[in-house]
Structure formats: C-alpha cells, structure tokens
Amino acid sequence: MTKFRHYEPDTYAQQHIRITPTTLADGREFFYLDDEPEYVSGKKTRELHDPRPLADRFAPHADADGNVVPYAAPQMRRDPLTGDWIPMATARMNRPITAGLKKTASGNPLAARIPGSAYQDGEVPDTDYDVVVFENRFPSMVQVPGVDNTTSFVDGNHLWQTRPAAGRCEVICFDPNESGLPADLPVERLRTVVEAWAFRTVELSHLEGIEQIFPFENHGQEIGVSLAHPHGQVYCYPYMPAKMEAELTHTEEYFEQTGGNLLRDLMAAEIDAGKRVVMRNHSWVAYVPAAARWPLEVHVAPLRDVLTLDELNDQERWDLAQMYSTLLKRGNAFFDTGDGKGMDLPYISAWHQAPVRDPRRAHYRLNLQFFSFRRAANKIKYLAGSESGMAAWVSDTTPELIAQRFLELGPVDID
Length: 415
Description:
EC number: 2.7.7.12
CATH class of the largest domain: Alpha Beta
Strand content: 15-25%
GO molecular function: UDP-glucose:hexose-1-phosphate uridylyltransferase activity; zinc ion binding
Cofactor: Zn(2+)
Distance between the termini: 31 Å
CATH architecture of the largest domain: 2-Layer Sandwich
Organism: Bifidobacterium bombi DSM 19703
Pfam families: GalP_UDP_tr_C, GalP_UDP_transf
Oligomer: single chain
Shape: globular
Number of helices: 8
Largest sheet: 11 strands, antiparallel
C-alpha cells in the first residue's frame, strides 16, 4: 500500500484494505479504498486516469459575458453578535442536484462509470469501486494556492471581519450502488468506511490552518440531500464551529471545577442509569442522552478514552462498524408505517472529535451524535420560531420514550 505522511494502517488495514491515491482531471485529490481481495493483493488495479476535459479548478475562467475572471475563492465573514464565522461559497449554486423536487441532473456524479457507455461527468474514473474519497468539486471551503489567508474588513469597517474560507471539503462514497442504503451495507464495508474516517482525520489534521475535522453523513431528502447515493462528507474548518466551541467551553469548565472529563462522566452516568442505554458491545455504548432535543437522537461513545477517530484500535474500529450497522437498521425500523417494514430514515450522523490545535482538546472525548428530523411516520420536526430564532429548543418527546422504542427493536447487548 502507498505510504502516507501521517496515516499508519493497523494490522487489519495492512492486510485487508488497499488505499490507492490519484488526482482528478482538475487537480483534486482522489483515493480508492479497496477491500476486495483481488485489489488488496494487487492482482487487479484501479483506473487512475480521469478522461474529462476539465480545466484546473483554480484557473481563471470566462464568466457569462465572456470576460476572463479569476477563480472565486470562498470567503467567510464573522458575525459580530455571535462570533460565528459564516462561509460564503457562490460556486455551490451550480452544483448538480439529483434528489428531490428541484433536481437539476439525471446522472449521478458519485456513481461509477457505466461499462461501454460514453464517459459522463462523474467523479469516479473506474467502472466499479469499494469506497472512494475525493475533494468536493463545489466546496464550501477550500485552500487556494497563492491566496493570502489574512483578515480584512467588509467595507473597511472593523466591525465586519472577513478572510478566505481556507478549509477543505471531501466526499466519501460508501458503495458504488447509487440506489443502495448505508443500512444495507455489510459490516465489512462499513469497517472500510471507518478506516476512511480515520485515514482522512489524521492526514487532514496536518493541513495548515485547520482547526476542526468533522466527518458527517446527511441522509434523506428531508435532510436536504442533493445527491441520492450512500455517501458522507468530511469538512475541515479553519475556525471553531459554534457547536464545538460551546461543547469545549463546557467540557473545560467541568474539568476546572471537578478535574473530570464531562463526556466520560456523562457516558458513565448513562450506563449507571441504564434506562436510556440502547446498545453496547465490547468497545462502544449507545444511549439516548438525558437532555435529547431531537425526536430521534442517539449518542455513541467509545468505552476507552479516545480523542479522535484515528486513535481507535483495530477492535474498536470493528466494534464501531458493527454498532453503526445496527444503529442504522434500528433507525429505519423506528417508525411504524403500518406494514412492518419501517422506512428509509432521514438522518444526520455527526462525528464530534477533539479539535486539532485548541489546548482544550485534552479534556474532550470522541463521540457520535446521530439524529433525525422525523418525529412520526408521516411528520417531520420543523425548526420554527423558538429553535431557529432563538436557538431555544422545544422537544416533541422525551428521551425515555425514544429509548423505549429502541429497546423494542432489539437487545442492548449486540456482541
């Protein structure tokens, strides 16, 4: 396998996963993560040439009037009232949408090439793949060569700070089947996805100026997914996102007051209470938090103190793949549609891991926050005045009722 600057595969990955890097036609990085034995052994190799006639992504281009203009690098501005940085990426208005009522494209750019057909504008050069990772073609944040990453001011007024949104956005495709569901993937494939999370976390953490690595998954039209395909993303923020900043503030305050780790103590308290724990195996526990805000919400935490995904050992990575598979299946069965088959649950799966450079990282702890907007088989929770206007949450259920439903769907111990 290719040697990387910072990623070190564990024993399983050395023997059963092969990572092959290449670049797409416009210069973006692309990685195959293969778990099929013939590719792992090197008996078969992947297609590394992207035949699309794409210009370098940072090259000047012609606008609608035919004028040559420079690449429009995403910018971000700081909200003086909240301190939040807001990336602004106008190029995303042109990204293809293949899901929902306003879809703009019929082809799926995340699907593999179709054997024998003319090559379309897809992102994967090969006719098949296991798992792939690549830089987003329409990123919210990107590091542009030669662009000075300094702070300036909108309209020259020091109230409004602005600077390049010099982060990075990547896509992780879990499987080539564009109509498949993550919940239907075998545990072995999800183990490869876990390896992709760990691989990208450690490599991206060494990019200059990156503060937070955020692997996540949006699934379902109700969530706003624009591409119908089993995939996730990794955002690399050049600032501390607001939710993470709030969590770090509270975990640091808790450490200063008690000397303890808030996330560890919350997990231990849920285990002691017992009634909201919905799954556990050798390395992980899943529970509905006592102050859950979403109508379906589960937090997943490692039993061992771990800061980031790349710190997980081989056993923990396997156990995570097993638990994630079980969580997705039970999530799909959570709402009864009357036929006993459940539904394709819309959800967000969000990895919260220790920040890259912030010293408060020492008192944080890796955790997955999984939630859905759906509050019934035929209803979703809309974030109206209180939630959206004041960030003052009102729950439509209780954590105990959420946990009770999960406990009806299968045993707690899944080893």
